[in-house]
Amino acid sequence: MARNLTVSDSQELRLWGEIAFCPRPKINRGTGKAYYPQSYIDFKRRAALQLRLQWKQAPITEALDIRLVLMFKKPKSRHRKRTKHLRTIRSHSRGDLDNAVKSVIDALQEAEIIKNDNQVFRLQAEMWFTAEGEEPFSSIHISTVKNGTWRSV
């Protein structure tokens, strides 16, 4: 089985501050309409503004290959003398990777960098704790996939 992809136009964007995890929508009992909490809406607006300031091009319409590195502030309960100067893997913590990824992709869409989240062809994501004294941030690498084929045997 041979795969052939043409990947081009790689861009890197940065989001400063911690990512808000995408929550489940809440339902208004009176109207029956779904809505997101105000804290999540505020995060998306702030993130979209940061991304818009870095992006000076038209929205991407091709298939996307996205790589995310999400850096979170290490809680005080996780500080250890031997590892305080190192970035460590964020596991067994509140907040799932898929909800963090959804938040970033929603912000990319709100910033009009991508047209729709269904453009994502391939996605790679990692969550880390920052080292002591390091501020949380997220690194977003976006590449466009022009065309691809996969021949089955």
Structural overview:
The protein is α+β, with helices and mostly antiparallel strands. 20% of the residues lie in helices and 37% in strands. The chain has a five-stranded mixed β-sheet with strand order 1-7-4-6-5, covered by helices on one side. Strands 2-3 form a two-stranded antiparallel ribbon. Strand 2 (26-27) and strand 3 (34-35) form a beta hairpin. Helix 1 crosses helix 2 (97-110). It starts with a strand and ends with a strand.
Which H/E pattern describes the elements? Answer: EEEHEEHEE
Can you tell me the overall shape? globular
Largest sheet: 5 strands, mixed
Proportion of helical residues: 10-25%
Count of alpha/pi helices? 2
Mean pLDDT value: 86
Low-pLDDT stretches are none
How are the strands ordered across the major sheet?
Answer: 1-7-4-6-5
User: Radius of gyration over alpha carbons?
Assistant: 18 Å
Please report which band the strand proportion falls in: under 5%, 5-15%, 15-25%, 25-35%, 35-45% or over 45%.
35-45%
Structural class comes to alpha+beta
How many DSSP-defined strands?
Answer: 7
* Quaternary organisation of the protein chains: single chain
Q: Whole-Å distance between the termini? A: 6 Å
Short description:
It contains two helices and seven strands, in the order βββαββαββ.
Key features of this structure:
single chain; 153 residues; alpha+beta; 5-stranded mixed β-sheet; two-stranded antiparallel ribbon; globular
